[in-house]
Write a structure and sequence with these properties.
47% of the residues lie in helices and 15% in strands. The protein has 242 residues and is of the alpha/beta class. The protein is globular.
Length: 242
């Protein structure tokens, strides 16, 4: 199915189920390595295919009218992987950032980063910061990329800042989170069949709708994204009420 056809089908599904589009969607992009292993390919091939899934999903989010798409690109725990795989991942990030920057501009996508991305070194940091600066005025969709991110660490730092300001409250902590200023998280998707949050947006997901799909991330496409939005649109969000 083409991107345009998938977008049309997704829009039809949403219209038929009430049409509620989440403002903020986050995705734990899981399954690259297993996808590659199943196909007898090296892990880097899975990461390359996963990067293409990012392109498809970003386009689907833009087409659907989602305001914020947050992607878990590299967790603070991913440093436990082999040096070779980390090198492959950072090389891919650098390559695709350079290749996709013009497309972000064309689509009106603003880039925002969360996590300690400076751990990737000066060259990568400068490239990331330049992309953030270049896209700052775009307002069609905000793409939040979590790099070297861990939610427990984020919450601990936010609580410490709130304490230093004199008061630890939920509101004070939320003000000091890296996602401050963004719409609340509405829908969190995890691919590959795993059913856990893996230290991702733990505070922000307090009342988010959770969706776990068996689809491996490299196979995630416009139709899968639109199907997730359609499932979201028929859920009843109570935020602790009845």
């Amino acid at each position: 199915m083409t991107s345009a056809a998938a977008a049309e089908e997704g829009a039809a599904a949403l219209a038929g189920s009430g049409g509620a589009v989440p403002r903020h969607v986050a995705i734990i992009m899981d399954g690259n390595g297993r996808w590659a292993k199943q196909k007898g390919l090296p892990r880097v091939a899975g990461h390359k295919a996963g990067a293409e899934a990012v392109r498809r999903t970003l386009q689907a989010a833009v087409d659907a009218g989602v305001e914020v798409l947050t992607l878990y690109a590299f967790s603070s725990e991913n440093w436990r992987r082999s040096d070779e795989e980390i090198s492959d991942l950072t090389g891919l990030m650098r390559y695709y950032l350079g290749r996709e920057l013009n497309r972000l501009m064309e689509e009106g996508v603003r880039l925002r980063l969360i996590g300690d991305y400076r751990a990737f070194g000066d060259q990568m940091s400068r490239q990331l910061e330049a992309a953030v600066e270049k896209t700052a005025a775009n307002d069609r969709l905000t793409l939040v990329v979590a790099l070297n991110y861990g939610s427990q660490q984020e919450i601990a730092k936010a609580a410490a800042r709130a304490a230093s300001a004199g008061e630890i409250t939920a509101e004070a902590i939320e003000t000091n989170l890296e996602t401050c200023g963004l719409p609340g998280l509405d829908l969190l998707i995890r691919t590959s069949g795993e059913v856990r949050l893996s230290n991702f947006l733990l505070w922000q997901a307090a009342y988010a709708e959770l969706l776990f799909t068996p689809i491996m991330w490299p196979d995630f496409d416009e139709q899968a994204f639109n199907d997730a939005l359609a499932q979201y649109s028929v859920r009843q969000r109570r935020f602790g009420g009845r």
